[in-house]
Amino acid sequence: MSHPAHPIIHFDQASFGFPGVIALQDISLDINAGEFVGVIGPNGSGKTTLCRAVLGLMPPLSGHLRIFDCSCDELRCHHRARIGYLPQKGVVDRNFPVTVLETVMMGRYGALGLFRRPSKRDREIAANALAHVGMEGHQNTALGQLSGGQQQRVFIARALAQQPQVLLLDEPTTGLDITTQHSVVDLVQQLHEELGLIVLLITHDINMIRSRVDRLILLKTRLFAFGPPADVLKPDILRQVYGKDLVITERDTIIVEDYHHH
Ligand SMILES: Nc1ncnc2c1ncn2[C@@H]1O[C@H](COP(=O)(O)OP(=O)(O)O)[C@@H](O)[C@H]1O
Ligand SMILES: [Mg+2]
C-alpha cells in the first residue's frame, strides 16, 4: 500500500566504496517526494559517491539502497531516466563541436533508446527544458561559446529533458563568480518549487543554501547529521567534521578555511 510519506530514496545501513577505500559507511537516511536537500562535507567526504549511489552506479558493499522502490541492480534505464544528473565538472572546451540544442537532446536518449530518432515531441521537451533555464534563445549556439554559468544552465536543461523526478547536482557553482553562483542556485530553487522535483544539491557554500533547503546531509564518510539546517549547522557538530578549518563569524556566517586554498 502506498503512503504519502513513502520515501523515494531509502538508504539502510548502506556502505559504498572502491577497492581498498570505504567512501561511505553505514548510511541510513530517507528522502521524500519533493524535498530540497543540500549535501555538505569536506573534500573526499563521499558527496560524489552519494550521487553515484543514487544513480544506481555503485551498489552497496553492505546494507541496502532503494530508489523508487527498486534496489540498485533493478534500476533499469527507465528508472535512471527519472534521475537527472549534473556531474562535477570543468568548463567545456571552447571548440567542442556541439550546439546547445544537441546537448539538451542528449537528455532524451534515456527515454528514446540510443537508436530511435528524436520526434517532434522530443524536440518540444528539449526546447521547453531550455525555456525553464532561460536559455531558449541559444538553441543553435556552440556550447563552448557560452559563459560558465550559461553552460551550467544548459547542462541543467539536459537533465530536465529527461523529465526527471529527482535532480542531482554535484557542485554546480564551483568555478563561477559569486553573482553567477547565486543565479544558478536561484534557478535550482525555482525548478524545485515549480516542478516539484526532489533536489540533491552538493555544494561547499553552506551559507548560500542554508535558508533554501528543507534538510542538509552532513557527510564525512559517515553521516554526521541529517535534518533541517538549524539542527545540522550547530558549532559542535560542524567542528566534528571540519575541525580547526571551521570559523563561524559573529553574524553566523560559516567559513571553512580549506576551501579557500584550492
Ligand atoms: N574512482 C575512485 N577510485 C578509488 N577511490 C575513489 C574514487 N573516487 C573517489 N574515491 C575515494 O572515495 C572517497 C570519497 O570520494 P568522493 O565521493 O569523490 O568525495 P567528495 O565528492 O565528497 O569529494 C575519497 O576517499 C576518494 O579518494
Ligand atoms: Mg565530489
If you had to describe this structure to a student in words, what would you say it looks like?
The chain has 262 residues and is an alpha/beta fold. It has 2 domains: 1-82 and 168-179 and 189-262, P-loop containing nucleotide triphosphate hydrolases (Rossmann fold, 3-Layer(aba) Sandwich), CATH 3.40.50; 91-163, no CATH class. 31% of the residues lie in helices and 25% in strands. The chain is built from 10 helices and 12 strands. The strands form 3 sheets. It has a 6-stranded mixed sheet, sandwiched between helices. A 4-stranded antiparallel sheet has the order 2-1-4-5, with helices on one face. A hairpin with a 2-residue loop joins β4 (62-67) and β5 (70-71). The longest helix is centred in the last third of the chain and has 18 residues, at 178-195. The mean pLDDT is 89. The site of magnesium ion (MG) has 4 residues, from α1.
Summary tags:
262 residues, binds magnesium ion, 10 helices, 6-stranded mixed β-sheet, binds adenosine-5'-diphosphate, globular, Rossmann fold
